[in-house]
Specification:
By secondary structure, the protein is of the alpha+beta class. The chain contains 14 helices and 9 strands. It binds a DNA duplex (11 and 11 nucleotides) through helix 2, helix 3, helix 6, helix 8 and helix 9.
Length: 345
DNA sequence: AAGGCGGGGAC
DNA sequence: GTCCCAGCCTT
């Protein structure tokens, strides 16, 4: 039996019932694929249901406000996915009359749809024989064929895509692509795969050469940057606070937060008061209270955010204030959502 | 070619 | 703590 036949057989015996496995509707497949980029099935699944409930069709998504899309996406991370999702929905409605394009090449031109996602949609929805290469496929191919090219190098990316094309089953691409990914996720897992009862164990190079734990090879150590956030939580007598929308190119683009003063290190109360003094447009306030003595460390994959929340009471009613009842309608980062949750108690 | 971009679960 | 998840985009 060939490699692809063994994958297909394993898949037929072990496939999970997942919500997007019961449809070939490109809208639903596209939605699931965007959500599952760098995201585990268990984390993405509730969002998939939420989105389909809110936006039954691509028209509903295209007609929504970006703020509503971001609000539903809140907590899933990589928010450019949500912004691109919304932009692509508009493109599909306006330029494709609401019908998704049906080829790999056209799909890949959509915002947020790269090589992997275009291959996934083209193969699953339209049976186009294009191999998917995601993190699971890299692992399966690197181990089975004993390839030690780094999976995140230019040469490696090209090599694995070509290898994937050579070994795929073009006649069963829909099941084969999902099968090899499922095989990587369940059987050929990153740590401690159970090679003893693997259907490929008599021909797996990595297993024969005792290199299973060493493959795949991945370069690149993401260095973590430390940042120091001081959030100013205003409170006026009418029970309102202030929010601002993050603009520019960094993290959490277009999400909301309390007014932020970033510093080069952790600040104490006298230092933050001095810093506020030199800022323009800070409302007058008569008290400055530190909410959390120990900075909250919010960890992103590439940044550690040491965060202090300062409670500032104002005498005058805040201009453009947001009531604490309405605050939950704004899309906010998990760091802010967690604060709001504990602060209200 | 390299770096930015989230959050969470498994170990 | 480390690794990595149905990756993509910008520079």
């Amino acid at each position: 039996m060939s490699f692809s036949q063994k994958i297909l057989k394993w898949y037929s015996e072990h496939k999970r019932e997942l919500p997007w496995r019961s449809t070939n509707d490109p809208y639903k497949i596209w939605l699931s694929e965007i959500m599952l980029q760098q995201t585990r099935v268990a984390q993405g699944t509730p969002y998939y249901h939420k989105f389909l409930k809110a936006f039954a069709t691509v028209y509903d998504l295209a007609n929504a406000e970006e703020e509503q899309v971001l609000k539903l996406w809140q907590g899933l991370g990589y928010y450019s996915r949500a912004r691109n999702l919304h932009a692509t929905a508009k493109i599909v409605v306006e330029e494709y009359k609401g019908k998704f394009p049906t080829t790999y090449r056209e799909l890949k031109s959509l915002k947020g749809v790269g090589d992997y996602t275009a291959s996934a949609i083209a193969s699953i929805c339209f049976n186009e024989p294009e191999p998917v290469v995601d993190g699971n496929v890299y692992r399966v191919l690197a181990r089975y064929f004993g390839v030690d090219l780094p999976i995140n190098s230019t040469k490696g990316i090209k090599y694995f895509k070509e290898l994937a094309r050579e070994v795929m089953d073009a006649n069963n691409i829909r099941d084969y692509n999902q099968g090899i990914m499922e095989f990587g996720a369940i059987q050929c897992a990153p740590k401690k795969p159970y090679c003893l009862l693997c259907p490929l164990n008599n021909s797996c190079v990595a297993l024969q050469e005792n290199k299973v734990s060493a493959l795949p090879v991945k370069l690149n150590k993401t260095k973590v940057k430390n940042r120091f956030f001081n959030y100013l939580v205003f409170q006026d007598d009418t029970g309102k606070t202030m929010l601002e929308q993050r603009k520019g190119r960094g993290i959490w683009q277009n999400l909301y937060q309390f007014p932020l003063l970033e510093s080069e290190r952790i600040l104490d109360k006298s230092e933050i008061k001095a810093l506020i003094k030199h800022q323009k447009g800070i409302p007058k306030h008569n008290s400055t209270l530190l909410y959390n003595e120990q900075p909250i460390v919010h960890k992103l994959s590439h940044q550690h955010l040491y965060t202090k929340f300062w409670i500032l009471n104002t005498e005058d009613a805040l201009k453009d204030g947001v009531s604490w009842e309405n605050i939950s309608s704004f899309p906010v980062p998990v760091l802010i959502a967690d604060f709001i949750k504990t602060y209200k108690i």
